[in-house]
Amino acid sequence: MKEISINEMKKLDFFQEIPCSMIQTILNQSMVVSYEKPEVIFHAKDNVNFVYIIISGKASIYNITKHGNRKIIFILGKGNLINHNILSEKPVSVFCEAVCPLKLLQIRKKDFLKWMDQEPALMHAVMRSYERYLWRMSHQLKNTTGNMYLERKIAAKLWKLGRDFGVETEDGIKIDVELTMNLLADLLGAPRENVSRACKNLSSRELLIYKNRHFILPMPDELAAFYKS
């Protein structure tokens, strides 16, 4: 496997403020691991002794409800810290799964903790990741409580996915994540049939296009206005 350079690491959000000397130390004592869809990186209740950072691809963080349904909490892309149990010795409480070909930097937790003590910039990178995680979680909670219609929940979720993973096409912003209706239902914690029906309603409003397992947002600003209304 091709070695990763410091310059490549610097392009990832997590490492942008970390000194090159520390990045080189991390690279010297870590390894790149690859997963294919839908391989699981870790299960809930696993004791995870590694820290994982996404180099390329995307991973979903999810849990299983008391009814046995999967509820996706986040879809994370490159440059994201996956696991947020770095200080804790308790088992993880969530599952992590590849949603497309995925490459991770795998670092021994004990080494990572030592480097956090030595390098303030690494500690700051972890704190920024935790803050982003909490901010996104608070918005998820806001959108999953109260009387928000399912169409608005879908619009909010797709707009945010378009912001994070969107690429421009002639039809609009294409979300560069393969999303089946089942996967979108897992993201929303709603029945698949209801999600499919709501997507058809949004399509009839010309707010989204669904083809080849990808969503396209023809008018992202109008979609945002719809879910905020």
Automatic annotation (TrEMBL):
Domain HTH crp-type: 148-221
Entry keyword annotation includes Translocase: no
Pfam families linked: cNMP_binding, HTH_Crp_2
Record key words, sorted: DNA-binding, Transcription, Transcription regulation
Keyword DNA-binding found: yes
Leader sequence segment: none
Protein name: cAMP regulatory protein
Species of the source: Robinsoniella peoriensis
